[in-house]
Amino acid sequence: MTHFFSTDDSRLAASARIILPAVWLGLIIGISLIEAPLKFTAPGITIPLGLGIGRLVFGVMNWVELVIAVILLWALLKSGVDRVYRSVACGLIGVLIIKVVVIRPLLNQRTDAVLAGVDDGGSSLHLLYIAADGLLIVGLVAALVLAVRRWVLIRPAVSADSTTE
User: Fold this and answer.
1) 47 in helix, strand or coil?
2) Tell me: the pLDDT tens digits for 86-138?
3) How far is CA 96 from CA 67, 135, 141, in A?
4) How far apart are CA 91 and CA 103, in angstroms?
5) C-beta neighbour count of 85 within 10 angstroms
């Protein structure tokens, strides 16, 4: 029996390397690509109300992303992780850190200015956040493909000529 923190690969760690990117990808698609754009089309939603909801939703989403990244980092420390997957996952974590530590605080400053009536809200900072999410989407799909490919054993098709005797 191996210890939970041992470096031996486990089914749990291998499963985490598939499940976590899938959940993370679903989170980004659901919030960034579906909820955020639709929010402002709802009747009665004002810019300040939409910004307040967005700040709350994206703040919680970023915390969930950080938790996913920490667990994924644990799964990367296990043996049996190839260099390509490790590189992709570390790139994902790097983009997430930039998104949360650099881009989100800048967007929060802009939101504060809009809510205070000092700014009209036109900003290209959202494009940086969208670009970061775009990189995450591409990286998460790559991580999923790599992790699933490692689990799936592709066997050559049995030809009709090779019959058992």
Assistant:
1) helix
2) 999 999 999 999 999 999 999 988 888 888 878 766 678 889 999 999 999 99
3) 11, 10, 15
4) 17
5) 21
- Distance, in Å, from the CA atom of 152 to the CA atom of 154, rounded to the nearest integer, reads 6
Asked if 66 and 100 touch (Cβ cutoff 8 Å), the reply is: yes
CB-side exposure of 3: number of CA atoms within 13 Å? 3
DSSP 64-121: HHHHHHHHHHHHHTSTT--HHHHHHHHHHHHHHHHIIIIIHHHHHHHHHHHHTTS---
Name which of 14, 96, 25 is nearest 63 in CA terms: 96
pLDDT, averaged across the chain:
85
Task: Provide the pLDDT for residue 5.
Answer: 47
| pLDDT tens, residue by residue, 29-51 | 999 999 988 988 889 998 888 88
Find tokens 């592709």 and name the residue. Answer: 154
